[in-house]
Amino acid sequence: MHAKGFFMLVITTLGISLLAFAVVVSSIASGSTQKTFGDHMEQTYTFIKKWGGKGTGDGKFLRPHDLDFSPDEKILYAV
Description:
The protein has no helices and eight strands. The model is unreliable at 1-30 (pLDDT under 50). The strands form four sheets. Strands 1-2 form a two-stranded antiparallel sheet. A two-stranded antiparallel sheet has the order 3-4. The chain has one domain (6-78). It is mainly β. The chain starts with 5 loop residues before the first strand and ends with a strand.
């Protein structure tokens, strides 16, 4: 988690060779809401943007394990 927002990486595997994924970014200060139902809480996020695709070049992701921002606000990911 980074101070500027909350990151969730959603990964879905379709078949053996197709890996689809998206990055969902929602800042807690920008409109996410919480609802409490009995003994559990539900968090609702606001979709902001998705980018990139499957691959190894610039703007591509291939099985990322973690995301973060560098001090100059570039997106870093670990494979």
